[in-house]
Amino acid sequence: MDGAKRESGRRVLVLNGPNLNLLGRREPDQYGHTTLKEIEDELRSYAASQVAEVRFVQSNHEGELIDAIHKAIGWADAMIVNAASLTHSSVGLRDAIIAAAIPTVEVHLSNIYRREEFRHRSLIADVAAGQITGFGAFSYRLGMEAALYLLDKKGS
Ligand code: DQA
């Protein structure tokens, strides 16, 4: 398979929700010291090493995240979604993921099941292919590996 062809089937949107723009300085005991830019830089170079293309969207606004999912239709082959607080409340985001029908990996830096009870419920979990939670910034790398695994599985 030639490079161009492989890349075209390996486009991944990484979507980050409210307050994740503050990573690095936001509750470092919970979320670590790595900034969102550092996470994105690492993912970009990892994706390139795997002949994949990646785009990043972060927004503090539910509607913008939904718009980003709509825009990903026709471009993204997979999505990595950390919906942050909206994980636990947004039917709109859940419905957008269902509507887009793009294979989705849900990620969280913290282990949401070791935290307050209201974080134990994810409205995204059962519409995602799977969930990665609790590995800090490394959750995103695992999320990327999972997304590419899904695409390889689909393509084989
Ligand atoms: C989070 C967990 C959510 O409960 C929280 O609201 C976040 C971040 C995580 O990555 O651990 O903002 O999604």
From TrEMBL:
> Could you mention a single GO BP entry for this protein?
aromatic amino acid family biosynthetic process
Family matches, as InterPro entries: DHquinase_II, DHquinase_II_CS, DHquinase_II_sf
Site positions (Transition state stabilizer) = 26
Gene Ontology MF annotations? 3-dehydroquinate dehydratase activity
E.C. numbers: 4.2.1.10
So, what pathway does this thing act in? Metabolic intermediate biosynthesis; chorismate biosynthesis; chorismate from D-erythrose 4-phosphate and phosphoenolpyruvate: step 3/7
The alphabetical list of record keywords is:
Amino-acid biosynthesis, Aromatic amino acid biosynthesis, Lyase
Q: Which residues are noted in the entry as substrate-binding?
A: 82, 88, 95, 109-110, 119
SUPFAM superfamilies, A to Z: Type II 3-dehydroquinate dehydratase
Q: According to its UniProt record, which reaction does this protein catalyse?
A: 3-dehydroquinate = 3-dehydroshikimate + H2O
Claim: Signal is one of the keywords in the record: no
Q: Where is the active site?
A: 31 (proton acceptor), 108 (proton donor)
The protein's role, per its UniProt record: Catalyzes a trans-dehydration via an enolate intermediate.
Q: Which HAMAP family match?
A: AroQ
Q: Which family does it belong to?
A: Belongs to the type-II 3-dehydroquinase family.
| Assembly notes | Homododecamer.
User: Entry's NCBIfam families?
Assistant: aroQ, PRK05395.1-2, PRK05395.1-3, PRK05395.1-4
Q: What protein am I looking at?
A: 3-dehydroquinate dehydratase
Tell me the organism: Candidatus Methylomirabilis limnetica
